[in-house]
Amino acid sequence: MSSSTAQDDSVLRDPPIPRGEKRRREIAVVAERVFFAQGFTDTTMQTIAAEAGASKETLYRHFGSKEGLFSEIVGSRANRFLEGLDENLRRPGTVGEVLRSLGTRMLEKMMDRDALCLYRIVVAEGPRNPDLGRIFFEQGPERVKARLAQFLEAATTRGELRCTNPALSAKIFSGAIITYYHMLGLVLPERPTATKAEIKAHVDEVVAMFLQRYQV
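Below the sequence we write its predicted structure tokens.
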């Protein structure tokens, strides 16, 4: 292999993940599975350590506490969702097209089985451990609302929308998109997931109502 080819390959390859960071991610994946199976309160750091083939000291060194480990899981899920959200918000097209793409992604992700399981844990454990609710809200819904509000504010500045309170408009849009199907997923888990046609019809109607209110 020529030196130029070797250099090209080195550029194309992702940089290696440091061993400590790789182990941290592996533990978080195991912890998520245990939390989903047992709930937050009934899960111990010892249980997670045993499942991950690690010591409790390793867990505490990486995450500080069980709450810290839970925060890592929520944050990781939120980051993956926000990466896709940002892709939707940057896509070319009209405001309506962007909102339809965004709304579809939001609804599909909120109906995901693991996302619903995480939400159930937060709701069930919230009264006993309010920090879980705070962690979930700040890492998830608040960050999504902030991203959407920035998009609506920029569209207003460009003269495409008239959102005098972008944060409020973002809450209204998000609520209209996810509330009904999210509630169904939480209280009727045996119900079949919404079809693509149902999702499209729902999102199209929400976007149409939103634009009727806010489009210039």
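Residues 35 and 119 are 12 Å apart (CA to CA).
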